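Task: sequence in, structure out. Protein: Heparinase II/III family protein.
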Amino acid sequence: MLLEKVAKLELTGVFLSADQLKPFPNAADRGAWNDVSSEAKEQWVSLAEQYFDFNWPALKMEHYMALKRKGDIHGYLNPHWERRSVLGFLAIAECIEGKGRYLDQIINGVFCICEETSWMQPMANTYLQKVNLGELLPDEADHIVDLSSSETAALLTWTYYLLKEQFDSISPRIGQRIEREVRNRVLMPYLEHDDYWWMGFLEGVRVNNWNPWCNSSVLMGFLVLEKDAFIRERGILKVMRSLDVFIATHSPDGCCDEGPMYWSRSGGSLYDCLELLDLASSHKVNIFNEPIVKEIGRYLYKVHIHGDYCVDFADGDAKAGMQGDVAFGYGKCIKDDNLMQLGASTSRRKVGAIDWFPLYRYIRDIFQEKERKSYGVKAPYVRDSWMAHAQVMTARETEGSEKGLYLAAKGGHNLESHNHNDVGGFIVYADGLPVLIDLGTEAYTSQTFSPQRFELWYLQSAYHNLPTVRGVMQQDGGRFRAKQASYRQFGNDSEMQVDISEAYPQEAGIISWSRSFRLVRDKKAAVEITDHYSLNEPTDELYFSIMTVCEPVQGKSGSFILEYDPGKHVVVRYDAESFIWNFERIELTDKRLQSNWGNAVYRILLKAREPMIHGTAKINLMRI
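Result:
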């Protein structure tokens, strides 16, 4: 798609030179930086003040080795991220103040990072390197382009762009060191390799968010730092070739099967790339009008529930952390008012976390803020969406409002990116708050990306809103999938139907299992989940798991009550003649899960009272 666009152009002179490219003001443009909002100035300067005397942490090799020894990735990554975040804090504060107060510390940070043995994460040794797989330590020659190395390159690239004049006034060697390290560690390896799995050039290897994420960082380096015109052009064209794979293999309905949190670095990073290509080509390379590009952007508001809450199927967090500059900018480029509205309604970006530091996005956010503020403050709250290819539905009780019931459900298969075994799973919210949930995932460890991934309890179907038969759960793999998925709207109701029988292995003994998800909109709105099942022989080892953040309380016969907000409740009704209910409290000790759900969640079990071979099971949920 992108290469096809370029093929129609006379390539020479299509792209602006590095000196001509001005995506936003550098630090020398005092007028632009003085015009930054007082809130942003205070936010960034007060943050940088905390690191004025920062002692740059050592990256200890014992922590690098801890991945293989103990499965720990964070002992090394936390100081690795801290170095980068602090450099970003200081760079933005220096641009805002323009007094030179932070320059010495910024230079310290630049050289600390440039002197690191490797910019790769410890995880790179387990799933990127083709040699020395048993090696515990990095080598200075291990220049592989992964998320960490490319993000580091992007941070240094934009630090250079913002502060080059100030650096040169102190010593030209600062900028030269950045140019050399980014080129040697990222840009040249990128050109020399077609075998990085995320590029999309290997047969049978599927790409995910890594493709646009890594490509966006690499593109930034070629556009801003590369002086050789031939190499620069080669790099830009290769990025476009790789992005074409991502676009061509993306779900045509725009659905990101990794979830909205990862959309920030799949669809969101695609936007970063397309924005830069459009700008660098003086609008000659522009594909924002392509239907698939529009659908990838629209996905975000289709799965937005309220505030930070989004539909969190797969590994993503329920509190996805909306990035207003990405949503608003993407919406503006594809001329979609709903996406612009979502971006404008997003609260001020939180800063201060020690994590990836996307400097490009932070600067864009600062200079886009006034336009967003003038646009509006309310999210679009779309009423319905159906993404047929991915088999995902969303429906809310009231268009344009978080009030009322919200239902999301999925079919799909169990080889999705960042997959959980969750074919036929669903979630329910009330008034924008969680009631029946998809847990998401704990903080990543080496096991998360290992063959033992699905031994992790929160990835298993028994800890999703799904049935378990004869103790047999769904299994991972592409052949374990939904079939006969359909969707319809009739009257005021929205309904999805799907057969989930093939998501379970044969030992479950399932002949057929049809599941429907229905949002009923009338004076007494309700969510109805109905299962019609047939088994090859009777069993009483049949139960339904229902995951909730609300402590269940016994209601009238055949019901239990969930309080989702002080004084606000839903009642869940079930067939008490066929099923008996109980629940367990699951204490959460992982900080990532706690950040979404607090200190505990509850697993409700509806268990068959007697052996069954076929039947219908139904739950009905209403606000009371």
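The CA atoms of residues 69 and 564 lie 42 Å apart.
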